[in-house]
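Lab notebook, bench 4. The sequencing result for the construct came back, and we need a structural model before the next group meeting so we can plan mutations. Quick request posted to the team channel:

Model the 3D structure of this chain.
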Amino acid sequence: PRLAVRVTAPQGEVLNLGSLAAAGGRIDVQAASVNQQGILRADALSQGPAGEIIISASQALNLAAGSSTTADGGQGGQVSLDAGAEGRLLISGQASAQGLNGLGGQIVLQGREIGLLDRAEIDVSGRFGGGEMLVGGGEQGKDARVRNAEALYFAPTARLAADATENGEGGRLILWSDKATRAFGSLSAQG
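Done. Here's the predicted structure in token form:
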């Protein structure tokens, strides 16, 4: 309980090629540049609630193809990926905050420029209701909790999901940028 893993490199780069795990706990990674190529897991132990993953960068944040960033559990957890007010967030890997026996969790993606590249998969689905995914801002760019992106690209083979997989309402998927949004991928928020 209350296990936390924290990696900080404010002036440099964090490169994860391995595995960081804090079952039901919190993983916090901070650096000027973060390159996530491995596994970050704050999944629940057994059927309990999932934990939280926070990755904060000031210049660049990259989730490479084949990487996995998950906060799955009975109730979905929280994942925050923030490249900073002037940084670029690029995702080719997989991120999830799924609720395996309850509601999906929340994933928030922030940065000046955001790219959900080919085969990126982000999922906040839940067994009894979808979660919330905020990409580049909140509803109509007016949510004070989330900083608005300037540009957003969502590739044709990328996939975002906030489904209720067994029963309940679909969740919320919001893609926003102030200047240019190009969305070509698959969105699903089925109830």
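The mean pLDDT is 94.
Will bring this to the meeting.
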